[in-house]
Each structure stands twice: as structure tokens, then as C-alpha cells.
Amino acid sequence: MRQWLNVADRAGNRALWWARYGTNAHGPAVGAIVVWSHGRGRGHVGIITARTESGWVVKSGNDGHAIRERVRSVKNAVAFRWPNRWAAL
Questions:
Q1: Is 65 left (phi over 0), alpha (psi -120 to 50) or beta?
Q2: Rounded to the nearest 5 degrees, what angle is found at the Cα of 36, between the Cα atoms of 76 and 18?
Q3: 88 within some domain
Q4: Does residue 10 sit within a domain?
Q5: Among 22, 42, 82, 88, which lies 20 to 30 A Cα-Cα from 31?
Q6: Domain tally, the chain
Q7: CA dist., res. 37 & res. 27, Å (int)
Q8: pTM greater than the 0.70 cutoff
Q9: Measured distance CA(84)–CA(72) in Å, rounded
């Protein structure tokens, strides 16, 4: 995520750091960062790239040890954020 958005702060290596990055998106939307918490300071982060009849398409790293873009549920997401700036996705 840090590389995609050109974020230098190494704190961005932790998924939950992204829950305060940028500005509040107030819900899922294409282009928003989505953050999930798995408890104990762990989580997952991705960028919503599309919406289909099946749900929201999210691009994320370390998803089964790979970068993937797939439909994911955002039901238990803890944050949706608009990035401060964009790099090439």
C-alpha cells in the first residue's frame, strides 16, 4: 500500500495505520482505502477498485502471499478512507 500511494512513513507497513490516513470516506466507494481489523493490532488493508453485482472489488497485497484483486466483503471493515494522493496502481 505504501508503494502504491507513495507514502514514506514506515508506520504504513501496519494495516491499522491506514484507518487514520487521508480523510474519512464514510463508507465503501471506488478509490477508497478499506481497512479490516483482525484483533490484537493486526489487520488487512486494500483499495476498492470496482463494484460488481457480487460486491466490492479490492486490490490488496499479502492476500494469500500475493497481490490480488478480487471481490471481498466490506461488512466488517473498520475504516474507509480517501487517500491524500495517488500513485500508479
A1: left
A2: 140
A3: no
A4: yes
A5: 42
A6: 1
A7: 16
A8: yes
A9: 23
List, in order, residues 6 or more apart from 57 with CB less than 8 Å away: 48, 49, 50, 51, 69, 70, 71, 72
Is 70:11 a contact under the CB 8 Å cutoff?
A: no
How far apart (Å, rounded) are the C-alpha atoms in residues 36 and 74?
8
The 8-class DSSP code of residue 39 comes to E
Nearest Cα neighbor of 33 from 23, 8, 51, 6 is 23
C-alpha cell, 4:
502504491
Is residue 87 in a domain?
Answer: no
Tell me: the pLDDT tens digits for 28-80?
A: 999 999 999 998 888 999 999 999 999 999 999 877 778 899 999 999 999 99
Domain encompassing residue 49: 2-82
Cβ proximity of 81 and 74 under 8 Å? no
At 44, the amino acid letter reads: H
